[in-house]
Give the backbone structure.
Amino acid sequence: MARWCWSIFFSFLCGLAAAEETAISRTQAALIAQQKFGGRVISVDEIELPSESAEGEDTSSAQTGTRFIVKVMQKGRVQVINLDAQGAPLNSAP
């Protein structure tokens, strides 16, 4: 019985650690973009950038992981908003 309890407890802790690193969903990306920039969300694209880098390339500057490209209509113009996996805005196109 004690082994079973420890197994469940350990699984729970691993689940909590994984939840902190989980990327946001497309819906959450749309809500974040709309709250921060206003306008009407037209589309949300989720892209996965490669995590591999060429030999000798500095990996600290390489962009890797999940990214969201959210298109928002503002005053008749489309604004493209780039969000990282946690929903933080990246460089957005004008």
Summary: The mean pLDDT is 75. Helices lie at 2-21, 26-37. DSSP finds two helices and three strands in the chain. The longest strand covers residues 40-49.
